[in-house]
Design brief:
With 154 residues, the protein is an alpha+beta fold. The chain contains four helices and five strands; from the N terminus they run βααβββαβα.
Length: 154
């Protein structure tokens, strides 16, 4: 098992984060994202942590995985729920503890933050491999269906 280091992403990491996001959409949902839009979105997060934070996993000098999280205030729980998004591990490094390292890092931060009441993540409904990985690491199906109305639809 390789030694995996976790660190916050910086603006210098923009290109690898954009690349991983585009790969994620292709591999998990067979979607081709508009790269310039993704680049602007990643740049917005890297430039303003109020939008969210990316964490990167590396083996040596190579970035091998990423995870972003955003915040949601829960009035029911009087605390923050951290949403995990844009989770990606390079195919050459899957099943080697990269995601485990990323989520354990975030869990430690959440445990040290008194306002955090839980973690949640999006996973494509047909991505059973990812769902199995998440379940092995203690995440459970929350019993909610995510619905959306994108601005282009209204």
């Amino acid at each position: 098992m390789p030694t995996i280091a976790i660190r916050p992403a910086t603006p210098a990491d923009e290109e690898i984060v954009v690349e991983f996001n585009c790969r994620l959409a292709t591999e998990s949902e067979n979607k081709q994202l508009d790269r310039p839009t993704v680049q602007l979105g990643v740049r917005a997060i890297l430039g303003n942590p109020q939008h969210g934070r990316y964490f990167l996993a590396s083996v040596g000098d190579q970035i091998v995985g990423q995870m972003m999280h955003t915040w949601e205030w829960s009035d029911w729980r009087n605390g923050e729920i951290w949403w995990l998004q844009s989770v990606y591990v390079h195919p050459d490094f899957r099943r080697q503890g990269v995601f485990r390292s990323l989520i354990q890092h975030l869990q430690a931060e959440a445990a040290a933050s008194p306002n955090v009441v839980g973690l949640r993540l999006y996973v494509e409904e047909h991505n059973t491999s990812a769902q199995a990985t998440y379940e092995r690491l203690g995440l459970k199906i929350a019993g909610y269906v995510v619905m959306e109305a994108l601005k282009t639809n209204y």
